[in-house]
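B., you asked whether I could sanity-check this one before it goes into the benchmark set. Here's the sequence:
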Amino acid sequence: MERIPWTSFHTRLIILLAIGEFFELYDLFVGGFVTVPVQKYYGISLTASVYYVVASLFLGAFVGAMAFTLIGDLWGRRTALLFNLALMSTAYLATPFAPSPEVLGLLRFVAGLGVGPEALIVLDIMISEFFPAKIRGRALATAYTISWTAPLATALLAYLLIPRQILGLYGWQWLFIIGGLGVVLLLPFRLLIPESPRWLEVKGRTAEAERIVAQMEEIAVREKGQLPPPAPVPVVKAERIPLGRLFGELFSKEYRRRTVMLWIFEFLQTGVYYGFASLAPSVLYSKGFTLVRTLEYSVLIYTSYLLSSLISIFLIDNVKFDRKWQVALIALLMGIDGLAFGYSTTPAQVVATGFIFGLLANVFSNAFHLYGAELYPTRIRAFADGVQYSLSRLGNYVWMSLLPLVLASYGALAMYAVVFAMAVAVFLDVGILGPRASQIELEKLSR
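And here's what the prediction gave me:
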């Protein structure tokens, strides 16, 4: 697979994968916009609203990331991709009609079960296993760039819908209905995604794996001409790892250092990233900006997330600025900019610092999503990536429960001081313990 160039097969695969991730990001950003309307609808505090809408989602995502990555390793990536969407769509469509904030929180938890593995299996693992090393980063960044139209779409829909009531339903309720219907429409397209040949090979289903790779090679020859001889890639023996040995494998001599690094990183980075992404609208509202002004500024700020992902396409495979340092250094810069955002008082300051944060955010995000997936061998990749990714969702739950309390008690600057401390810890963790990764064959990097 390392010798196959980018063809229409890869383009079609990226589009199919990116559409699913679009709806995960849609939901992650919808949470930030609906906290104030939900607060008013149920007559609860803003802190309680953030807990039920945002934190409960991430608690479900913590459980879902673990459960569905086990499904992905045992029964296939494709199977997991179908089940998680069914959960997402059911919960999305039921959420607007929750009779109480507690029921809404429960439905957000169920939605999180489906959201948990979406980015992990859909993009990170599938792209790691389908694309050769030289374009693996660019492929993932391209897929995320398509997906990162979601925050802008969410912001625009929130701006248009939240101040209004349509057919007896409030705007925030329509945001969930639109997301649920979109996921339902996506389900049939998931059937077009092929199973990972690397996973099939590990499971001993070599004939199926060969059939998919032969199809990829046939398309490449037809579109690009004769393929070069197969590249000399280290052969990794296919073996099945019993469930009981999986954790032992993570802490074996070969992978102990990177496991510790990734577990620390994933738990802390969510406070840095989502301390802005999920809480920025609440922070603006707490600074005294009206709901309408908050929505307007959010549209401007979230435009930068798409631009950031576009930038990462050209940066993510850079050998001189390795993915390791794209993760570590940019996390530190995000922490510094978060302090500036917390200190901001004027509209110009808020939009400028928020825009800069967004420009940094997806260079960081795209790099670490690929970085985490490519550091383990295929036989344990989904499980290993699922464990560390589930820790990020646990971190989401913890930080989205605690940071709003800091915001309510001490203000935005104090909250972003906590975020800055986490950014420093992430920088030191990845900078000291993380291996280099850009343009290294998957089999060699994950040995």
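One thing to flag: Residues 8-42 form the longest helix (35 residues). Otherwise nothing jumped out at me.
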